[in-house]
Amino acid sequence: MTRALSLFLPWWSAERASRRHAGTRPDAVLVVGVHRGQRVVMGSCAKAHALGVRRGVSLAHARALVGTAREVEHDPRADALGLAALARWAGARWSPLVAVDGDDGLMLDVTGCAHLFGGEAAMADAIAKAIARMGLTGRVALAGTPGCAWALARYGRDADDTPRRALIARSGQEREVLATLPVEALRIEPQAADALAQVGVDRVGQVMDLPRCAVPARYGAMVLRRLDQALGLVAEPVARTSEDAPVEACRELPGGVSRGEDLCAVVRALVDEACASLERLGSGTRRLEVRLTRLGLPEAVISAELSRATRRAAHLWSLLRPRVERVHMGFGVERAAVLCRPDARVAHAQRVLSLARGGLALSPASGSALNAAGGLMLAPDAHERDEHRRDVGALIDTLTNRLGRSRLWRPTCRAGHRPERAHGRAPAEEVVSESSATRDRAAATAGAALGVAAGVSSSIARPSVVFDPPRAARAIALTPDGPVARLAYDGEDVGVCATVGPERISGEWWRTREETRDYYRVCAEGGRWLWVYREVGTGEWRVHGVWA
Amino acid sequence: VLDLAALRARIADLVDAHALGAGADGAFANAPHGSPCSAAPNSTHTPAAAYSLDHTTLDHAAAASDLAVRAIEWAAPVPLRTRTIHEFLASDPERATARWLPPLCILVGLALQTWTRLRAATGIPPLLVWIGARVHPYAPVLARATREGHSPLRSSICIEPTDAAERAWAIDAALRCPAPVCVIADGSELDMAQARRIHVAARAGRGVAFLARPPWEHAARTCAATRWRIAPAPPAHTDHPAAIAWTATLLRCKDRPALATEGRVWTVEWTDDQGLVAVPAMVERGARLAQARGHAS
Questions:
Q1: Mutate which: A384, A387, A464, vs B, most B CBs within 10 A
Q2: Nearest-CA distance from A394 to chain B in Å?
Q3: Which of residues 17-56 of B touch A (CB under 8 A)?
Q4: Distance between start and end Cα atoms, chain A
Q5: How far apart, in whole angstroms, are the C-alpha atoms of residue A153 and residue A160?
């Protein structure tokens, strides 16, 4: 039985922007943005709302309604980041499944969680109180479906028609609870709600009574879908988004910075800040981006890709530094931001406290130090391995960032019959990942099963250099199908002292058009060994490789 | 002045201690450092003689079971130390053109030995970095898994720089990696400044670099500890007509200059351990030994 909890923050934008001023001036707060060249109200606090300010009215109108008000700029990005941070908090505190719900709320899947907090009522109350302690206005609703919880949080009323802090609907009660709510509670488009209002349908109960077959044609498919979701007839899982929230560190630079050293110092500090945030999350990132807003030039984006998740500021800075130093600063950089995504969990490094030479020093733990201390957290072997991976990962990052991804790869064997299909390329970062080992073993097994790798495992059966494509050759044999006596290729004509073979290699059975080849290992007069083949059907000779 | 001399001696000791050439399994050479091969200068060894040196250093049974890993054995008595550069000149006068081929079999063999020995010493498979399209080996040649599932192929990365400067930078970056690495690179067209930079990087790191150079760069100035010329050996020089063999000539040896001036030549053989056609010298010898023992008993 699913239980969903919806947390609605009606004045999120205004309260977030004015949080640091809370308690100083109890003015109304207006969140102001620009819409079609006009300054309009994008959000407001409860006080302004009570005075009649609504979203979308012009700023002049709002000023006339509320008198003196604090006006804050609309910053949707900061709102989203704040909401993501709130989602992380909720994920750590209340339920592991938390999703950001629109731009003013959260959705929590609290199935099986409520008993940990003393029941649903206690839990809802505790959440509402915690939100209130943050200086935010929040409404909490618990129901059997996310749709119903969403509707209750936003449109649920008490008996005396006042919004309540926490509302709870038992599972199976959705139909009765929803029936009295306005149609907007179904999370439908405003156009669909208007169309329903025109025919006098303004309550969800009335929508339920409409003939189902007529609704999609007249009001769109979403109306029925949302109704079914709210009633629990169509499943609607809570998609967890909290982990994906990006980490951002930014600095406004009023007047613009135009000295390279200053910019480097700012970006370095931002990288440190971002790494500290990652550390708090217990995560590392695999891609870091520096965005520089320049005067007179478009925004500069410098990104660093990493082979494995890390949060080592020194390493990240070593990758970024050459490019930050070279960036064209235009007439000055006005804003610098470092963005990254917490991609993977990175364990906190165990540190040892050393009291050598009278001073305190914290150093990353080495296996031996841990052993000596007696408190072994990681096996020394595992620790060394991790350090090795980190060093190799750093090398791959350095090479990739300078040369590009296409110039760096890990050679692999493939299960192909033909020599040219028996090898391939894999991303270089697989060298430091664990998962590729299993795949390699699988490929080797598959190759052995195909009978190709059987000879390869000795390594001598294959030359060190394989020509792609094979080079055309002319062979002279003393007798038809006899051993090769002379070989002409690449403008050279060489005598042959020894021939080993043949080794017959055909294409896979599904490649019916491919010729079967007879491979020979041929020793040219100088002692150089060549790998030549003759196509069985056509009798053509090619030099395919050399033991250089 | 005395202190400085003592310090120098101490540094030299430390450097020696860091070198791989300590003890039985540390050196690339089959023979101990102090005892050169019994062959006279400018002569060639038979592979059997080269392999006979193995038995002085390695357990016979272990050697027999580990044949695949020891497909190439380096028969020279000069240890190829880590934290330095070693150069290998291709020698093929007929192909002294832009399409020269590096002595890749030798480099692969050395890389595999380094990989095996560093792994045995540290417990962690070192990284093999192949820099330059010319030295990228055909992957199946590297495909050998150990019992623990490690494979040289799995710890290899190939890099394709566009020019000599980028190549020098990549070699430098790889050698400076704190993890143990073995760099196999195309060392053509590197000038002295770049060579010196690579040398400094090699001293700073924990790796070793094997550079392949074209035949015409035999007189180029270098910081390498050893320089070799590798040429295909005519079949008459080997025990078996189907053996793949090369002659290795020592052109320069920083530690023991006398060896280089003597112009030592050794034969190196790539044995066919699958027994496809050729019988490797070692297996043959082993069989003969067993036979002899059987007769004796």
A1: A464
A2: 8
A3: none
A4: 69
A5: 16
Is any Cβ of chain A less than 8 angstroms from the Cβ of B271?
Answer: yes
> Using CB atoms and an 8 Å cut-off, which of residues 345-404 of chain A contact chain B?
381, 384-385, 387-388, 391-392, 394-396, 398-399, 402-403
Radius of gyration of chain B (CA): 19
- Cβ distance A340 to A285 under 8 Å? yes
**pTM of this structure:** 0.62
Task: Give the residue on A whose Cα is nearest the Cα of B247.
Answer: A527
Distance CA A189, CA B37 (A): 89
For chain A, which residues score pLDDT lower than 50? 356-380, 447-458
Please name the residues in contact with A186: beta carbons below 8 A apart, sequence gap of 6 or more.
A147, A151, A204, A207, A223, A226, A227, A230
C-alpha span between B180 and B205 (Å, rounded):
8
pLDDT confidence tier of residue B274, bands split at 50, 70 and 90: very low
- Nearest chain B Cα distance for residue A346, angstroms: 20
Query: pLDDT class for B124, splitting at 50, 70, 90?
Result: confident
With 0-12 CB in 10 A as exposed, 13-18 as middle and 19+ as buried, what is A427? middle
Assign A289 to helix, strand or coil. strand
The residue among A1, A89, A73 whose CA lies nearest residue A40 is A73
Token reading at A63: 């000023």
Q: Could you give the CA distance from residue A31 to residue A70 in angstroms, rounded to a whole number?
A: 9
B160 contacts A422? CB cut-off 8 A: no
Secondary structure, 3-state, A315-363: HHHHHHHHHHHHCCCCCCEEEEEEEECCCEECCCCCEEEECHHHCCEEE
User: By the CB < 8 Å criterion, does A439 face chain B?
Assistant: no
Check CB contact under 8 Å for A453 and B143.
yes
| Residues 6+ away with beta carbon under 8 Å from A15 | A9, A29, A45, A135, A136, A137
